[in-house]
Amino acid sequence: MAVGSTLFAVLIWGSVGSVLAVFGYISWLLIRLRRTK
Amino acid sequence: MVSQTAALAATVVTLATFTAAGLWYAHGRVGSVEDLLTARNSTGTAMTTATLIASTMGAWILFSPAEAGAAFGGLPAILGYAIGSAIPLLLFIPVGVRIRELMPTGHSLTEFVLVRFGPVMYVFVLVVSVFYMFIFLAAEMTAIAGSLELVAGIPAWQTATAVGLFVLVYTAYGGLVASIFTDTIQTLVILPLLAVGFGAAVLALGGTGEIHATALATDPSLLDPGFRPGLEFGLYVVFAILGANMLNQGIWQRVYAADGESTLTRSFAVAALTVVPMVLLAGLFGVVASGLGLVTPETQSVAFFLVVIEVLPESIAFVVVLLVVLLVMSSADTMLNAISSLITVDLARIIDVDNDRSLRLTGRGLTVLVAIGAIIIGAQGYSVLRLFLTADLLAAAVFVPLIWGLYSRSLTELGGLVASLAGLVVGIAYFPMLRGVVMLVPGVGPLLPEPAFLPAFLGATAVSTLVTGLAVAVGSANFEFDSLTTKIRSFDESTTEDPSAAAAGEVSD
After folding, report:
1. Predicted ipTM > 0.90
2. Chain A residue numbers touching B224 (CB-CB < 8 A)
């Protein structure tokens, strides 16, 4: 039984969102580090 | 297709920019061979996470996961690939913490193997580890040379030479310090480029609904999570990646570069969570290529790029060119530094290197030699996935006794060796890619089982684990873990306390 269209969309856009979230996390850590220095 | 001039210009500008950044950052920061090879306790969570993502996610993610999706079993194969890429990073959390406790001034897994097991096991692990990392580097060169040839028609040798030389310049000069810094910047460019580029590509293909419908109409098994060949691939790739990563000196260097246990734990956990969507997105392009009927048996390994060339607008193809260059730089510098680090640390034990400066020069010289070798192989155009799978099999048979040896006092060198060799024999017996070589051994042919990847990788790891367990149960050794702290010291310590100690390397009695 194939994965449904909605689940497929969640898989793709969820992955795109997760990658952007990690970008945000690392950027936030670096900015915080710069401010505390 | 992207214009050759534009792609070449973008490649050279990207290479030159990051080379300049690496040289600038490393200037004045590489005072000793320790800085060049270890950068001990120097990076916080942001840099450690970024460098782990950049180091492990090379240009291979645009080849192998898509090939797996297109040819090895659709969605379940990609899911296995994604999860398999994350598991080693998670395993590094307890194992990394443990090795930092046992040998706080260590540099590599091979050092541990030498003191914990002995010289025979050490040479065995060293050879497998260097072989795997060299294959990784050569595969990266192959990947970028092949992709730019496909997308922009740039001859493979030109790309391999340009990338190899630029990365070599800042890695030989700035070592691990330059590698981690450039990795951080590269990750900050790669992540949004990947997300936006892939998002735009999905929209250009008509959205997720359209892609789903096309794939389903062409071959429903592409999106079937229970598709058996895909599940099998997903399972054996986990073992393949796990073993290989455990022998990846680039990751061990970063275990030591992290500025504490909490940094190590957080960074490896976040990196593990990040590689899953990255591999998943890249792999889904294989499903798309297959769904659109673009893939033939000859073009499976470039499934991702078939979609880029045939379907997507030139602007997205250009983003892919930049992405490939960044992915390659970030992992090639890691592998170059890791191989030279491993050999430099080990060379210091074998030949008479009388001071820190000589050792640094040796390390840099080795970096040059390794880069030249990788450029030559990279221009040949071998299959990236096939290159990896061969190196992965060796690692799958070897890593279990090494990790077990971190916790067990009773495991002997003989036990570890027998376990590794037993795993290797079973793995090679089933491994399809080495069948031709194995058949050359007289009398072996009729004894060989049906070749298949799943029993090869599963068998190599399972037999190695089983024999290690038996060796631990009957082992008579009583290894003193405290001896690791005294026998393995940093190069700085060796040079300060006793200049002659540096000549013998950092392992001392």
Report:
1. yes
2. 1-3
